[in-house]
């Protein structure tokens, strides 16, 4: 007699409930972990907020949508970083919802939820998903493009064109990789009879009109900024290094799907003492075009993304690992066949829970243990609130005005720019990147210059002293960390640039 656990029965009878349980639990986990264990935001979130505060149509970091949404979420949360963490996890939820809807239309809800469960173990959707920015926002938009792209190509639903046009326009407003990514569904449509038939209608023309309206302001900004040029191709002497870079990126993607591989291996007949007694989840026969669609978008973004990144010397796969690996779990389900046998149910449950919890456990372990093992601090251990409060209040006490701008060390300046008065970020070493503040306006309205102090004297580094020859350094301010351990006090040197006329 075959025994099926409660989880198996829920997958069979209530797949939508299982989907929401899995996705909601993981999203909640990655809201709580950074709120509790991060003293400062990870990655480039502080810079994203500093750029979003300006509401520029475009910047050297790319299209503006992710920066605008980050600032809106930050303000909606009352100036608390939890708003950005919640926004990042909303992107996660929408990504997996679109994946579930796409899979359900192809293989049915039961196999669709199995695909979601497998995909949730991919590490690209864990810790990196907290670092909200263009790469994180691009994930749900890409997933929606794939879902509605299949509705148009595979199912011939003309009503999906409008949603698809909106999603394409928003993707173009999110990442510079969007044009390259969109070549893949266009190429797939041109290569298939059903896709060509869908493109021959009038609907694509209306879709192009919607896309053009959405991206027109950013396109005008690109023309004025003259940023249409591609990165330079590598010199012949650099080809070997670029090939290694592409291979390393591909190796990183393979490691990220290690959890999917482990679950597949644990579910093979070799590890099951009773291979003929396993419960199963069935589906109806699948459209052959659906299989090709899934395999193409499971392999092409990863392989081509690594090749393009290697050729141009980029540090990440085109579109990010979340886009490159989005369809991997679904491809495994598609390749399994019409019947999925779930063997060794207790082992599978334990392994899946461990794979999902492991990245969070590593973050917690690093936050609690690393300060006692090494004098090197984690980027997320800086006391961001204390730093921003102190320098904001210091400027206001001295001048009677809210702090208008902050310059100096980019990391420290970015944290201060998240403070209560939301001062402008001024990257004095690369002033073209922050055109909303110039050297002249910084000296006119005043601000604070900060740097990492090596001693109690607090002498500014030579490059900062050269850019701000008029500053008089104050005594460095020492900040305690949440967990001190073996790490020394964080000393920040600083100086006030007083507004002119005061």
UniProtKB/TrEMBL annotation:
Claim: Transmembrane helix is one of the keywords in the record: yes
Record carries keyword Transferase: yes
Regions annotated as coiled coil: none
Intracellular or extracellular location(s): Cell membrane
Keyword list, A-Z: Cell membrane, Glycosyltransferase, Membrane, Transferase, Transmembrane, Transmembrane helix
Family matches, as InterPro entries: LipidA_mod_glycosyltrf_83 (IPR050297), RgtA/B/C-like (IPR038731)
Listed GO MF terms: glycosyltransferase activity
Annotated EC: 2.4.-.-
Major location category of this protein: membrane
Pfam families assigned to the protein according to its UniProt record, in alphabetical order: PMT_2 (PF13231)
Glycosyltransferase RgtA/B/C/D-like domain boundaries: 63-221
Membrane topology: Multi-pass membrane protein
Superkingdom of the source species: Bacteria
Annotated transmembrane regions: 17-39, 77-100, 112-130, 168-193, 205-223, 243-266, 293-312, 318-340, 352-373
Name of the protein described by the UniProt record: Glycosyltransferase family 39 protein
Record organism: Rhodopseudomonas telluris
Lineage: Bacteria, Pseudomonadati, Pseudomonadota, Alphaproteobacteria, Hyphomicrobiales
């Amino acid at each position: 007699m075959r025994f099926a656990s409660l989880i198996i029965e829920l997958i069979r009878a209530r797949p939508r409930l299982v989907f929401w349980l899995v996705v909601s639990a993981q999203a909640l986990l990655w809201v709580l972990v950074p709120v509790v264990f991060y003293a400062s935001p990870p990655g480039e979130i502080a810079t994203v907020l500093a750029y979003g505060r300006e509401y520029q149509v475009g910047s050297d970091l790319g299209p503006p949508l992710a920066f605008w949404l980050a600032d809106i979420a930050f303000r909606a949360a009352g100036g608390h970083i939890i708003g950005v963490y919640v926004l990042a996890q909303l992107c996660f939820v929408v990504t997996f919802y679109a994946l579930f809807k796409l899979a359900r239309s192809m293989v049915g809800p039961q196999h669709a939820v199995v695909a979601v469960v497998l995909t949730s173990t991919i590490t690209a959707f864990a810790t990196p998903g907290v670092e909200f920015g263009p790469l994180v926002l691009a994930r749900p938009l890409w997933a929606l493009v794939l879902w509605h792209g299949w509705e148009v190509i595979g199912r011939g639903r003309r009503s999906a064109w409008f949603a698809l046009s909106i999603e394409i326009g928003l993707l173009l407003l999110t990442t510079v990789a969007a044009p390259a990514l969109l070549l893949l569904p266009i190429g797939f449509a041109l290569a298939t009879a059903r896709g060509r038939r869908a493109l021959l209608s009038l609907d694509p023309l209306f879709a192009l009109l919607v896309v053009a309206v959405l991206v027109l302001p950013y396109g005008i900004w690109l023309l004025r900024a003259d940023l249409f040029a591609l990165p330079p191709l590598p010199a012949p002497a650099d080809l070997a290094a670029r090939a290694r870079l592409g291979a390393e990126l591909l190796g990183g993607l393979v490691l990220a799907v290690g959890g999917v591989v482990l679950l597949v291996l644990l579910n093979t007949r070799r590890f099951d003492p009773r291979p003929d007694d396993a419960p199963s989840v069935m589906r109806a026969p699948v459209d052959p075009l659906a299989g090709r669609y899934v395999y193409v978008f499971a392999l092409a973004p990863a392989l081509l993304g690594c090749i393009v990144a290697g050729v141009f010397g980029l540090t990440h796969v085109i579109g990010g690992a979340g886009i490159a690996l989005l369809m991997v779990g679904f491809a495994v389900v598609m390749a399994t066949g019409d019947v999925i046998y779930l063997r060794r149910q207790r082992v599978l449950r334990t392994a899946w829970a461990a794979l999902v919890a492991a990245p969070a456990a590593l973050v917690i372990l690093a936050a609690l243990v690393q300060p006692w093992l090494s004098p090197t601090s984690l980027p997320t251990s800086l006391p961001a609130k204390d730093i921003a409060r102190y320098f904001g209040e210091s400027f206001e006490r001295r001048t009677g005005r809210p702090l208008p701008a902050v310059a100096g060390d980019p990391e420290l300046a970015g944290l201060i720019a998240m403070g209560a008065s939301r001062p402008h970020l001024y990257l004095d070493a690369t002033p073209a990147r922050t055109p909303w503040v110039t050297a002249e306006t910084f000296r006119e309205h005043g601000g604070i210059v900060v740097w990492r102090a090596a001693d109690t004297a607090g002498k500014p580094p030579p490059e900062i002293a050269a850019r701000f020859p008029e500053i008089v350094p104050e005594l460095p301010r020492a900040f305690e960390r949440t967990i001190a351990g073996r790490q020394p006090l964080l000393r920040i040197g600083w100086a006030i640039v007083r507004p002119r006329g005061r």
